[in-house]
Amino acid sequence: MIKHTLFVCKSCHRSSEELAENQVCDGSILLDKLTALSTEKFAIEDLEINPVGCLWACSRGCVVAVSSPEKPTYLLVDLPPDTENASALLEFTQMYINNRKGAFMWEKLPKELESAIFASIPSVLTKPED
């Protein structure tokens, strides 16, 4: 079975203001919520949550990417670091895992994520169209 990965930018901060010393980044808060909730919803062999230093969308934090070698990668942005959004993101991730092509029905997308999908990047294993 192919493992799916949820990349979470741990340095994201949704505000344009500088962080106060010792203030935790929004990305780290979201990462903690995702990690805690994922143990209830996923087997360890299904999903790896991988914190990354930066996903280069700093003006759009919090930013995550859902990826698998044989499926498109989805980049999601502007995610508030709360439990509701973390839960919606894991629900989307479950749809992604359950579909062999990584597709999802827009009508079933959690409403919290409707404006968060920023990009769909084709798999490197996708053959070019003629």
Short note summarizing the structure:
The chain is an alpha+beta fold. The protein is built from 2 helices and 5 strands; from the N terminus they run βαβββαβ.
Mean pLDDT across the residues is 88
Shape: globular
- At CATH level 2, the architecture is 3-Layer(aba) Sandwich
Strand order of the largest sheet: 2-1-3-4-5
Helix-strand makeup class: alpha+beta
The CATH topology turns out to be Glutaredoxin
Q: What's the SSE pattern?
A: EHEEEHE
Task: Please tally the β strands and state the result.
Answer: 5
What does this molecule look like?
The protein has 130 residues and is an alpha+beta fold. It has a single domain, classed as Glutaredoxin, CATH 3.40.30.10. The chain has two helices and five strands; from the N terminus they run βαβββαβ. It has a five-stranded mixed β-sheet, covered by helices on one side. The longest helix is centred in the N-terminal third of the chain and has 16 residues, at 26-41.
Describe this protein with a few key phrases:
alpha+beta; Glutaredoxin; 130 residues; five-stranded mixed sheet
Outline the fold blueprint.
Elements: E1 4-9, H1 26-41, E2 47-52, E3 64-68, E4 71-76, H2 83-98, E5 117-121
Parallel strand pairs: 1-2
Antiparallel strand pairs: 1-3, 3-4, 4-5
